[in-house]
Specification:
By secondary structure, this protein is of the alpha/beta class. The protein folds into two domains: 8-246, Aspartate Aminotransferase, domain 2 (3-Layer(aba) Sandwich), CATH 3.40.640; 250-334, Aspartate Aminotransferase, domain 1. 41% of the residues lie in helices and 17% in strands. It is built from 13 helices and twelve strands. It has helices at 14-21, 34-46, 58-69, 83-86, 91-96, 148-161, 172-179, 183-189, 213-225, 234-246, 251-265, 288-297, 320-334, and strands spanning 2-3, 51-55, 75-79, 99-103, 129-135, 164-169, 192-196, 207-211, 280-284, 300-301, 303-306, 309-313. The strands form three sheets. Strands 2-8-7-6-5-3-4 form a seven-stranded mixed β-sheet, with helices on both faces. The chain has a three-stranded antiparallel β-sheet with strand order 9-12-11, covered by helices on one side. A two-stranded parallel sheet has the order 1-10. The structure holds pyridoxal-5'-phosphate (PLP). The site of pyridoxal-5'-phosphate has 11 residues, from helix 3. The site of pyridoxal-5'-phosphate (PLP) has 11 residues, from helix 3. Keywords: Pyridoxal phosphate. Belongs to the threonine aldolase family. Residues 3-284 form the Aromatic amino acid beta-eliminating lyase/threonine aldolase domain. Its cofactor is pyridoxal 5'-phosphate. This is Threonine aldolase family protein.
């Protein structure tokens, strides 16, 4: 089966499993798991920040970040297609008491100039804007990389208005692989950063919220409140440490395969290869649900996101032969 629905479908490699089973562990709620502590220290250092907090999911890391920056009854600004408002089950409102207002841009690509007019400064008659969240790469936008100049402009804006900045960096690894921008530069621009170890990096479970020491201490309280205090989580952290050490450099292979996939399918009118920047290929196929069902019968899985569109993602469990098979199956079906 060539599973292109998501980059979350990978299984640990034998070497990663070996790192997991040989991990030193302890009770992480007591702060005594050496593997979790090492992972947190390594991730913080990578992003040039003081601390990191290991979480079971990216949604939890995002929601902790938002709760650190925005109090109940205050407002977060973000893109209309952002994961934090579309795919986290209303958690910002339900659990954080946070209201959200969104901007709309093509492919989710940040345009910092659009945001300044949206900001509500503290006053007695309008909801106060406290923070802005940005997704990089942008998932539903199609793996869009946020331009570093726009991120710098956003930081300048946030400084002027004293706003918090949260980076949903579930796929920041792919942004780095595509641009070479160092992780520490992203870390320097944002107050809180979430990253996923279970997407392109291929760990089975785990995310991190990366921030300063004071916020990290508060993050541990919020994490426990959300039910995210884990015990011998070092077995999972060991997979994350292995992924950070070994699976970042290979992401360029996923990007090359996504390019090849998009260029091969483009002549059939299902995608625009010029829009593919990382490992996500958005496909537009009328009646895609039927095509996806037929493709699955021939060993290729693609994800359906609407009546006429979906996506195909590359990751380390897909090789060149898998891509060739997917191209053949999908192009035959849409022809
Ligand atoms: C996958 C993803 C997350 C986190 O998802 P979980 O399934 O909760 O780990 C957050 N943001 C983006 C953009 C994502 O794609």
């Amino acid at each position: 089966m060539v599973d292109l629905r998501s980059d979350t479908v990978t299984r640990p490699t034998p070497a990663m499993l070996e790192a997991m089973t040989s991990a030193d562990v302890g009770d992480d709620v007591y702060g005594e798991d050496p593997s979790v502590n090492a992972l947190e220290a390594e991730a913080a250092a990578l992003f040039g920040k003081e601390a990191a907090v290991f979480t079971p999911t990216g949604s939890m890391a995002n929601q902790i970040g938002l709760q650190l920056l925005v109090r109940p009854g205050e407002e977060l600004l973000c893109d209309v297609k952002a994961h934090v408002v579309n795919f986290e089950m209303g958690a910002a409102a339900a659990l954080g008491g946070i209201t959200t207002r969104t901007w709309t841009v093509p492919n989710g690509r940040l345009d910092a100039a659009l945001i300044e007019p949206m900001i509500n400064l503290p006053n007695p008659y309008a909801t106060t804007t406290r923070a802005i969240a940005v997704e990089n790469t942008h998932n539903i936008g199609g793996g869009t990389v946020q331009p570093i100049e726009e991120l710098r402009a956003l930081r300048a804006l946030a400084d002027v208005y004293d706003l918090g900045l949260h980076l949903d960096g579930a796929r920041i690894w792919n942004a780095h692989a595509a641009t070479g921008v160092p992780f520490s530069e992203y870390g320097g621009l944002f107050d809180t950063v979430s990253v996923c170890l279970s997407k392109g990096l291929g760990a089975p479970v785990g995310s991190l919220l990366i921030t300063d020491a004071e916020r990290a201490a508060r993050a541990r309280v919020i994490r426990k409140r959300l039910g995210g205090g884990m015990r011998q989580a070092g077995f999972l952290a060991a997979a994350g440490r292995y992924a950070l050490a070994n699976h970042i450099d290979r992401l360029v292979e996923d990007h090359a395969r996504a390019q090849h996939l998009a260029r091969s399918l483009e002549p059939f009118g299902v995608c625009d290869a010029s829009q593919v920047e990382t490992n996500i290929v958005i496909v537009r196929i009328p009646g895609i649900a039927k095509v996806a069902a037929a493709a699955a019968e021939q060993g290729v899985r693609i994800s359906v996101l609407g009546p006429d569109w979906g996506r195909m993602l590359t990751h380390y469990d897909v090789d060149d032969a898998g891509i060739e098979h997917a191209v053949k199956v999908v192009s035959d079906l849409v022809r």
